[in-house]
Amino acid sequence: TRIGLHSGYLLMGHIGAEGHYEYAPVGDIVNTASRIEGLNKRLGTRILASEDTLVEATDFDKRLMGSFLLSGKSRPVTIYQILADGAFKGEATPVYTELFPTALELFRARQWQQAETTLARCLEILPGDGPSHFYLEQCRTYQRKPPADDWQGVIPVGK
């Protein structure tokens, strides 16, 4: 199960034709939530939410995943991973609180090799960490073929 959360205004309406009608939400919010849900597969995560959704949310653990240009969007969306209660405790704590955030900063600063080293350390501690695997591959890709000079750390995500 993968969940994508996004907030904002949407329209509810009857959709269909003779013999079959549905009452369903429509609009950009629905599409964006669907794209965020799909991003889980790429990141190896279960629950992702847009920054818009988490503006005032402080009652649970979350981890910044970065900025993504989702399919069909003209502006990037900042994405967070929603973590299980207590994720910041135990052996994996440094991955969530120190190493991954540092790797993300290095990545956005175009310091691919240093980010790669830090992500490798994340994977030594937490071998199944999907976001670390994702960004490790991004670092390797950008070392071979760097993004444009005006790149702002946004990762384009197709369908």
What does the model show?
- The chain has helices at residues 28-43, 93-108, 112-125, 130-144; strands at 3-5, 11-17, 20-26, 47-50, 62-70, 77-82, 154-157.
- It has 159 residues and is α/β, with parallel strands linked by helices.
- The strands form two sheets. The protein has a five-stranded mixed β-sheet with strand order 1-4-6-5-7.
- Strand 5 and strand 6 form a beta hairpin.
- Helix 2 (93-108) runs antiparallel to helix 3 and helix 3 runs antiparallel to helix 4 (130-144).
The proportion of strand residues reads 25-35%
Number of strands: 7
User: What is the general shape?
Assistant: globular
Strand order within the widest beta sheet: 1-4-6-5-7
Radius of gyration over alpha carbons? 18 Å
What's the order of the H and E elements? EEEHEEEHHHE
Distance linking N and C termini: 19 Å
Question: Quick check: average pLDDT?
Answer: 90
Unreliable stretches: none
Into which percent range does the helicity of residues fall? 25-40%
Features of this protein?
single chain, 159 residues, five-stranded mixed sheet, 4 helices, 7 strands, 38% helix
What is the fold's blueprint, element by element?
Blueprint: E1 3-5, E2 11-17, E3 20-26, H1 28-43, E4 47-50, E5 62-70, E6 77-82, H2 93-108, H3 112-125, H4 130-144, E7 154-157
Parallel strand pairs: 1-4, 5-7
Antiparallel strand pairs: 2-3, 4-6, 5-6
Helix pairs in contact: 2-3, 3-4
Brief characterization of the structure:
Helices cover 38% and strands 25% of the residues. The chain has four helices and seven strands. The chain has helices spanning 28-43, 93-108, 112-125, 130-144, and strands at 3-5, 11-17, 20-26, 47-50, 62-70, 77-82, 154-157.
